[in-house]
Amino acid sequence: MIEETIRKLQHLRLFAMVEQIRQLINTSRLGSIAADDLLSFIVDAEYDRRNKNRIERLLRQAGLKLPNACIADVQFSAKRNLRKEHLEQITNVEFLKQQKNVLISGATGVGKTYLACAIGHIACMNGFSTKYFRVTKFLESMAAEQAVGNYLKAIDKLGKITLLILDDLGPDVMTRNQRNHFLEIIEERYMKVSTVIASQLPLDQWYAVFGESTSADAICDRLFHNGYKIELKGESMRKSTT
């Protein structure tokens, strides 16, 4: 009887449930567990396995530059202008449910990329689709998609990702095509999903990167209007690791 049940579970690809049942059989515990406890035990095993697999898949697809970055390891301090209580809406991923952006600025080495990736990591851990790009790679990718006729499909796909991370904005001024690509994706995602942007430039200098006032106003208005602003300060974090 039990082997027939196991066969059916395998056919349904409920492998974690099968594994737990076989473990109980091997330890002679199967007959000593109440039916409701047994059901809960094997269902929890399947749920946990699938949730673990989903998180691993989301992390692979995210392509984070620092895949092991973790909010728990972020160094919060007044010296860095980074207080944990000020980031509560971000660390509990409430900002994703509110479709808000996160804008991170600061000098080279102060931990912008680490923080951005830590936010991406916690988004994946909570089951949200995430994708990381350096801005230069993102713009190259959009140009390549346009060249082969897949541009609109690529914009649509990126527009549906819950969290898009665009790292290292500026300081080079964008070309007309680059500016248009950037505006297109920001417009597509505005008030629907969340975007994290990190830059070594102060926030008030982001306008200049887009090179044309009308587009710059449109892009920055959509980012700033609905965004948490984090201005990191302090010495380079790289110095402390050398």
Q: If you had to describe this structure to a student in words, what would you say it looks like?
A:
This protein is of the alpha/beta class and 242 residues long. It folds into 2 domains: 60 residues, no CATH class; 179 residues, Rossmann fold (3-Layer(aba) Sandwich), CATH 3.40.50.300. Helix content is 52%, strand content 12%. The chain has a 5-stranded parallel sheet, with helices on both faces. Helix 9 links the parallel strand 3 and strand 4. Helix 2 crosses helix 3. The longest helix is centred in the N-terminal third of the chain and has 28 residues.
Quick recap of the structure?
By secondary structure, the protein is an alpha/beta fold. The protein is 52% helix and 12% strand. The protein has eleven helices and five strands, in the order H-H-H-H-H-E-H-E-H-H-E-H-E-H-H-E.
Estimate nothing, just give the exact number of structural domains: 2
Rg (CA only): 23 Å
Q: What about the largest sheet?
A: 5 strands, parallel
Approximate shape: elongated
Keywords:
elongated; alpha/beta; 242 residues; 2 domains
Q: How are the secondary structure elements laid out?
A:
Blueprint: H1 2-11, H2 15-26, H3 35-62, H4 88-91, H5 94-97, E1 101-105, H6 112-125, E2 130-134, H7 135-147, H8 151-159, E3 163-169, H9 176-189, E4 194-199, H10 206-210, H11 213-225, E5 227-231
Parallel strand pairs: 1-4, 1-5, 2-3, 3-4
